[in-house]
Structure formats: structure tokens, C-alpha cells
Amino acid sequence: MIKIEDSWLHHLAPEFEKPYFGSLTEKVREEYRNYQCYPPGSKIFNAFNLCPFDKVKAVIIGQDPYHEPGQAMGLSFSVPEGIAPPPSLINIFREIESDLGKPAARTGDLTRWAMQGVLLLNATLTVRAHVANSHQRLGWTTFTDAAIKSLSDNREHIVFMLWGGFARSKAYLIDKTRHLVLECAHPSPLSANRGGWFGNRHFSRCNAYLAQYGIAPIEW
């Protein structure tokens, strides 16, 4: 049994019955048996469990979990309380402060966003320690693409934030007549410092769009 929040279980039930998902499950179990992998097994579906399907207001897509000890917690860009925010997250906080004109909370734990309706979704939900993108070919992207497509098809007025080339490649899954898609460079220093991240104003634009449809804004 997949331990995932009930509303997501309902919408993604067909995926769990497909051959690729059975193969994916076996591969992930083997990886966790034979190697140190992240996040902890109980946190693999954390993004879904903290943000039910019908509560999603915004989606932030990452590539795969942090691969160093103590960082990954099943939420894209987020690290647990007490862990120093990585460079990408620091740049996210800098943009929030510039965009909204107030200090961003400096804890790297973004659970507070998830609880407000921000789906912090990594395209690949697991990773082998110290090896970025090591689980990218296991089949996770088929599953997470289905989650994005289901939100697009069955909900309205969600803000999809696509940062960097990988996230932007998911734009085809989203119906832009029903949702707002915001695209820009990735917040990592390599991308952000070349331009295209700072000044994107995604956080205020997200809240303005939500307010337009009578949806409570996100307290970033």
C-alpha cells in the first residue's frame, strides 16, 4: 500500500496500477536496501501528504531531492529546521524580500508554505546519497507528470512556478487557459547570477492572481 494522502490517492489511483509503478516501487526498495538514500522513507510523499489535492493553490517544481545528509524532507527546495538554507533557497528568500518589501522567514523548513497550499514537488522523489539525479531514470517523472497533469485537468486557478530549464519543460502538461504559469531562470547561483531570477516578482504575481479569483494569498 502507498501511504499517500486520500485525495491524491483518489486522483492518482490509476498510476498505482500501471506496470511502471510496480517496477518503480521495486527499484526504489532495492536502492533503499543497498544504499543510503534520501529522503527517509516516511517522507517520500511528504509534498502530497502536507498539501491535499483540493487545497493546492500553487506548485513549485524541483528536480530531485537534496543528496547530502539531513537535508531532504520530501519538499522541493526545503530543508529541516536547524539546517542551513542552501544557496538556491537563500536566493528565493532574497527575491521574496525584494518582491514583497518585507523580510522573509529565514528558516529553510518550507512546511509553512505546504500547509497553505503550495505543492513543493520534486519531479524525482528519491535520490542516492551524494549522487545528484541518481534516481531520475527509475520512473518517478512518469508519476509526478501525472500529478501535474491531474491538477491541470481537474482544478482551476492554480499558479505553476517553473524555475529553470528542467521545470519549464513541464509547461506542456499545464492548461494555460485554466491556470497561471510563471517561468524564469533557476534560483541557483549559477543561473540567478546570470540574470532572469532576481526581479521575477513571482511571489507577488502569484498572490495577485489568487486574489483575482477570491483565493486567500500565500504568506511567503
Give a verbal description of the structure.
- The protein has helices spanning 6-16, 19-34, 46-50, 87-100, 111-115, 140-154, 164-168, 189-192, 202-212; strands at residues 37-38, 58-62, 118-122, 127-128, 159-163, 180-184.
- The protein has 220 residues and is of the alpha/beta class.
- The strands form two sheets. A four-stranded parallel β-sheet has the order 3-2-5-6. It has a two-stranded antiparallel sheet with strand order 1-4.
- Helix 7 (164-168) links the parallel strand 5 and strand 6 (180-184).
- The chain starts with 5 loop residues before the first helix and ends in an 8-residue tail after the last helix.
- The model has no long low-confidence stretch (mean pLDDT 96).
- Intertermini distance: 34 Å
Structural shape: globular
| Lateral arrangement of strands in the main beta sheet | 3-2-5-6
Q: Specify the helix fraction band.
A: 25-40%
Number of helices: 9
Overall SS class = alpha/beta
What are the segments in which pLDDT stays under 50 over at least 5 consecutive residues?
none
Largest sheet: 4 strands, parallel
Radius of gyration: 17 Å
